[in-house]
Amino acid sequence: MIKFEASSALSFISDEELDRSMEHAKKAFQQVIDRTGQGSEWLGWRRILSEPNDAELDRISGHAEKIRQDADIFIVCGIGGSFTGAKAIIDALVPAFSDNGPEILYAGHHMGGRYLEGLLNYLKQPKEDGTTKSVYLNVISKSGSTLETALAFRMIRGWMHEAYGDEAGKRIIATTGPDGGVLNEIIEEKGYSKYVIPEDVGGRFSVLTPVGLLPVAVAGIDIQTLFYGAVSEFEESEKDPQKVLKYAAMRYKLHVEGYDLDVIGSFEPELMGLAAWTQQLLGESEGKEGKGLFPAIAGYSTDLHSIGQMIQQGQRNLIETMFVLEKSISPLTVNEQDSETDQLGYLTGKSFHEINRSALNGTIQAHVEGGVPVFKIVIEKLNAQQLGRFIYFYELMTAVYVYMLGVNPFNQPGVENYKKAMYRLLGKEN
Ligand code: PA5
Predict the structure, then answer these.
(1) Could you count the other beta carbons within 10 Å of the beta carbon of residue 373?
(2) Catalytic residue list contains 289
(3) Can you give the CATH number for the domain in which 27 is found?
């Protein structure tokens, strides 16, 4: 169950204002349902949940299992919506420092030469027994032409063809649009296996397609449970969209009243990938025509020691969204010591979950007193089912809220501007 808790934001909006905003949100929700809003040809993220493709889920799970048995390293090569979702789920569900299954590495999400050079050197280093590492590469690009991804793909696949010869083709998997684009030409030329990103699903809404599902399955996460978690949230919110409407209505109202920033954060480091995914989902969807709350992200309690001051007493133009885990994910408690010189004896026996929870509640209290409306998004348990629910909850809320702003949630025309300038500087023709 995903809960939307607004009690720490309610005092910033009157009941009448909220009622009016709710009416507006209902109309926007209806536009999603009736497919009458802008960009309605991009509502495939709903279609895939209304008609689950079990055969594809099985194909991905089966393929991922084979990769898990053979791979030392699995590289996810993509940017934006083509990697953020997979990373978010893997970061949330695969415990840090665990070595169960292949090491998941990322590439193609920036153009830093040192990183790519270091990655290639790491791949080339033989294992302790002197044999070559078993590397698999999943290139993910709907357009098939995004420069960051295409460049990293070119460099890594070049090494893979050298290292594995004819066998390289079996280790390279491409996830891309149904047809067209350079990547489809490469797939045809080299015979790589391919997963299709449906035409009607845009990048940042594509985590529940092979874009996110293959990497997540290779990381050992049950994608059927993840996917059907999203299906449950989809079905429930079709019948009762109240929490989505309330969230969209309040976010909208605060924005039009002059709030400019949404600081999305969590006291659980495991949820920071989800914050990054949400940042991209909201940012690329709402930031158009001079509108939108700028989605910033903050990891707590780390960032209380940096931007915490700004949130508490800086310009009063921000709201905060806290991702909260209801159930503890670690039994760790503060140990006893033979000396109490560190003056931490008052915490002996307390769990880290409890301490972190007090930090969360204290922070919310202080921020609200400082004039910051705070929303809580509560995830009951950290598991694949709940994350599936979380993903659909946010996708739907984003669509409803952005329709309320009167803009198209599903395009990103502004992203082209930097590309044009960059390609001109790089001397690309056409
Ligand atoms: O949401 C989006 O559409 C973007 O963030 C894209 O996912 C991102 O630009 C990567 O594009 P592509 O998958 O075509 O390489």
Answers:
(1) 24
(2) no
(3) 3.40.50.10490
